[in-house]
Amino acid sequence: MNWYPWLNTPYRHLVGQYAAGRGHHALLVHAVPGNGDAALLYALGRWLICQQRKGEKSCGECHSCRLMLAGNHPDYHILAPEKGKSSLGVEPVRQVIEILYSHAQQGGAKVVWLSQAELLTEAAANALLKTLEEPPANTYFLLGCSDPSRLLATLRSRCFYWHLASPDEQLGLRWLDRQNGGDPIVRLTALRLHGGAPIAAEALLKLEQWQQRASLCNALSAALPQCDMLMLLPVLNHDDVAERLHWLCALLLDALKWQQGAASYVMNQDQLMLVQQLAQRLSSSSLQQIMQKWLNCRHQLLSISGVNRELLLTEQLLSWEQMIGCAP
């Protein structure tokens, strides 16, 4: 698994707590997607399970380390939704819990890694609660999440919460420069659109993704003067609609920043003309109302199974036309 320079400090801090005997058996790491929390938790898991630690590093040579590197350590358990499912049900959780109460096969620590704790169903979370409260000896739970509010309060209360902040913007930009090069304004835009998370920004900068965003920006720029917001439907109505609505809402939020004289904080630094166009075309109250409607739309698309995506998007676009006086 790749390692990232901004993880060095949090890794040393967390390992230091465990080395000093102050580490919690259940660690909940909250991070913006694309900040490398999976790499951080994997490295911590390797250190916990290593049998011949070298200070803050796992040795990489003991039998446990070799099993970890091979991806088949019997005391390292990964909890994740089954292929094709968007949630983690109770049965896999029960199976892991049953295994945890047997002896560690390698005689050392037992580690459970759950990369997206918010995907636990309520039944699965409840099944995990008692074990988190009274875990078997030398057992550690490493949980990642991007939205702690979606977790049961009782589950959060049994974990040690750690916020993995995005790296300093200049550090993120330097890392992106080494990965991609190119236009610094483009890199800055990609980084800000993902809350400063460099790995997510790198994914956005891939040619196909970046072209999709450009298509949305071009369609919006053309639709505004013609008062024909339905021009956006073909570029929004895709399986990755949540990501595209995120781009759209970021433009609306940037227009509000522009109106308040905060242009230096604009996310879409490569689309300043479009941001200015939105700021001049719409009042602050209209921008706020439109953005809230799109956020509600995005939530419905993500949370309601079987929703008619095209119909919902069409309704929102027609509502936008009415709000800005485009409808006859």
Automatic annotation (TrEMBL):
<keyword id="KW-0235">DNA replication</keyword>
<dbReference type="InterPro" id="IPR048731">
    <property type="entry name" value="HolB_lid-gammaproteobact"/>
</dbReference>
<dbReference type="InterPro" id="IPR008921">
    <property type="entry name" value="DNA_pol3_clamp-load_cplx_C"/>
</dbReference>
<keyword id="KW-0808">Transferase</keyword>
<keyword id="KW-0548">Nucleotidyltransferase</keyword>
<protein>
    <recommendedName>
        <fullName>DNA polymerase III subunit delta'</fullName>
        <ecNumber>2.7.7.7</ecNumber>
    </recommendedName>
</protein>
<keyword id="KW-0239">DNA-directed DNA polymerase</keyword>
<dbReference type="InterPro" id="IPR015199">
    <property type="entry name" value="DNA_pol_III_delta_C"/>
</dbReference>
<feature type="domain" description="DNA polymerase III subunit delta' AAA+ ATPase lid">
    <location>
        <begin position="167"/>
        <end position="205"/>
    </location>
</feature>
<dbReference type="Pfam" id="PF21500">
    <property type="entry name" value="HolB_lid"/>
</dbReference>
<dbReference type="Pfam" id="PF13177">
    <property type="entry name" value="DNA_pol3_delta2"/>
</dbReference>
<dbReference type="InterPro" id="IPR050238">
    <property type="entry name" value="DNA_Rep/Repair_Clamp_Loader"/>
</dbReference>
<dbReference type="InterPro" id="IPR004622">
    <property type="entry name" value="DNA_pol_HolB"/>
</dbReference>
<dbReference type="Pfam" id="PF09115">
    <property type="entry name" value="DNApol3-delta_C"/>
</dbReference>
<feature type="domain" description="DNA polymerase III delta subunit C-terminal">
    <location>
        <begin position="208"/>
        <end position="322"/>
    </location>
</feature>
<dbReference type="InterPro" id="IPR027417">
    <property type="entry name" value="P-loop_NTPase"/>
</dbReference>
